[in-house]
């Protein structure tokens, strides 16, 4: 992902579910970066990490991505790394993601998608542990991504287990 973000050089970038801020240092230093997360603990750790990135302009906010407080069309690039399969209402989160993304902007979803034969077998074994951890192991690419009227610009071929798979999406004109 970092290479693609650098090539497109978005002026404004939103990371949904920024967590501990692991990816913040990968984003272009001249972009205006906003990270949101539900968890104050995660944001506190992300804030420590962001403070070490002196050349980056980032803002961190506690916010539910299923009901964002940003105006429509606020960001050139919205990245959603490993959040769709843990949020309670992924369809709401995707609707909001599309709303705050500028026309012609890009959404990148990174997640574990159910589907490959290997993951099908593995999923049976991990299902109850995954549910306990708040993560849906039967998260289907067809239902969560292909169900919407947008253009899949790029989908990384899955590995043997079919995960994780970054997906880059654009609105249809
Ligand atoms: C599996 S972690 C991924 C963290 C980070 N994106 C990464 O790749 O390291 C999922 C993160 O999404 C956050 N999250 C889950 N649902 C959310 C929501 N509805 N709104 C905002 N953040 C959410 C969690 O608090 C957690 O920090």
The CATH superfamily name is Vaccinia Virus protein VP39
How would you sum up the global shape? globular
Structural class: alpha/beta
- Uncertain regions spanning at least 5 consecutive residues: none
Q: Overall mean pLDDT score?
A: 80
CATH architecture identity: 3-Layer(aba) Sandwich
Q: Write out the strand line-up for the largest beta sheet, numbering strands in chain order.
A: 3-2-1-4-5-7-6
**Tally of helical runs:** 5
Specify the CATH class: Alpha Beta
CATH fold category name = Rossmann fold
Order of helices and strands: HEEHEEHEHHEE
Which sheet architecture does the biggest sheet show? Answer: 7 strands, mixed
Mind explaining what this structure looks like?
With about 170 residues, this protein is of the alpha/beta class. It has helices spanning about 1-10, 40-50, 90-100, 115-130, 140-145; strands at about 10-15, 30-35, 55-60, 75-80, 100-110, 150-155, 165-170. A seven-stranded mixed sheet has the order 3-2-1-4-5-7-6. The radius of gyration is 16 Å and the shape is globular. About 35% of the residues are buried. The model has no long low-confidence stretch (mean pLDDT about 80). Bound molecules: S-adenosylmethionine (SAM). S-adenosylmethionine (SAM) binds near residues 22, 39, 42 and 66. S-adenosylmethionine (SAM) binds next to strand 2.
List the helices and strands and how they pair.
Blueprint: H1 2-8, E1 12-16, E2 32-37, H2 40-51, E3 57-62, E4 75-81, H3 90-100, E5 101-111, H4 117-132, H5 141-144, E6 150-155, E7 165-171
The chain binds S-adenosylmethionine.
């Amino acid at each position: 992902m970092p290479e693609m973000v650098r090539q497109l050089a978005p002026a404004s970038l939103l990371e949904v579910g920024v967590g501990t801020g692991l990816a913040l240092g990968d984003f272009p230093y001249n972009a205006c970066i906003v990270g949101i997360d539900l968890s104050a603990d995660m944001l506190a750790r992300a804030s420590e990490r962001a403070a070490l990135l002196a050349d980056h302009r980032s803002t961190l906010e506690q916010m539910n991505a299923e009901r964002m407080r940003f105006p429509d069309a606020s960001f050139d690039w919205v990245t959603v790394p490993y959040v769709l399969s843990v949020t309670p209402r992924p369809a709401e989160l995707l609707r909001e993601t599309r709303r705050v993304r500028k026309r012609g902007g890009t959404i990148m979803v990174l997640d574990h998608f159910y589907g490959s034969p290997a993951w099908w077998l593995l999923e049976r074994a991990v299902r109850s542990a995954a549910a306990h951890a708040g993560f849906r192991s039967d998260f289907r690419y067809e239902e969560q991504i292909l169900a919407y009227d947008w253009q899949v610009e790029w989908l990384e071929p899955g590995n043997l287990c079919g995960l994780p798979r970054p997906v880059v999406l654009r609105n249809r004109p």
